[in-house]
Amino acid sequence: MHDAKLVIWGCGGMGREVLALCEVLGRNVAGFLDEREEMRGQMVDGVPVLGDIQHIYAYRNEVEVICSGVGDPVLKRKFARKTRDAGFRLAGPLVHPAVNIPRSSQVDDNSIVCAGSIVSINVNIGKFVIINTQVTLAHDVTIAEHCTISPGVNISGNVTMEEGVFIGTGSAVREKVTIGAWSIIGGGAFVKDTVPANALYAGVPAVFKKKIIR
Ligand SMILES: CC(C)(COP(=O)(O)OP(=O)(O)OC[C@H]1O[C@@H](n2cnc3c(N)ncnc32)[C@H](O)[C@@H]1OP(=O)(O)O)[C@@H](O)C(=O)NCCC(=O)NCCS
Fold this sequence. Notes:
The chain is globular and about 50 Å long. The chain is an alpha/beta fold. A hairpin with a 2-residue loop joins strand 3 (43-44) and strand 4 (47-48). The chain has two domains: 5-90, 3-Layer(aba) Sandwich (Rossmann fold); 93-201, UDP N-Acetylglucosamine Acyltransferase, domain 1 (3 Solenoid), CATH 2.160.10.10. It is built from two helices and 24 strands. The protein has helices at residues 13-24, 73-85, and strands at 5-9, 29-33, 43-44, 47-48, 63-66, 89-90, 94-95, 106-107, 112-113, 118-119, 124-125, 130-131, 136-137, 142-143, 148-149, 154-155, 160-161, 166-167, 172-173, 178-179, 184-185, 190-191, 199-202, 207-211. The strands form five sheets. Strands 7-9-12-15-18-21-23-24 form an eight-stranded mixed beta sheet, covered by helices on one side. A five-stranded parallel beta sheet has the order 8-11-14-17-20, with no helix packed on it. A five-stranded parallel beta sheet has the order 10-13-16-19-22, with no helix packed on it. It binds coenzyme A.
């Protein structure tokens, strides 16, 4: 059902970028979803904000939902759960047409790959992942569900990102490093050692800054 209308969770910067990507791909977007009651009924970039998921329940068999319209991995997971619990279908991957995905690499459902990114061989991108603009993913990289990779990030070969990792703009990650689940890397960092789960690392080289309590 590739021609199904799409709805996008989030109508901020990331959601609007996903809308623009849908337009490049020729996909029809019915509207945005947003939990904030005051946003319901507003127009954003010419597209209506439809409200929360329950407000479009009557259309659950007609639309597919994109949960990757927000950068925060925790919010993406929340929206994915709400969408599944309400019985909606999740959209497949959205990859900018100028990005080549080699046959040994894959992008799973509801993930976004934006313009200017380069995906090398044997790269595995899980569900609900954002690969923002001009990201490079070298050979044998694994990116688990709900990760967000900000613009201009360079990931070297054999790097593994566990679930829910956020990498800030312009960072670089050395080869064979693992970044633990739900950790955050500050913008402009160089990650040279393995990062534990639930930690904020930043700087060049990246060092431990604080534990992340959710
Ligand atoms: C990491 C980040 C998310 C801030 O998180 P936070 O929980 O608010 O962190 P804090 O401001 O409490 O900072 C904690 C410490 O890390 C340091 N820090 C935070 N971000 C840093 C960075 N990018 N580089 C170096 N140090 C950084 C702070 O100076 C502070 O250090 P201190 O304890 O020695 O004073 C933010 O600084 C950042 O880098 N964001 C990038 C966002 C991005 O790329 N967005 C892309 C959107 S398209």
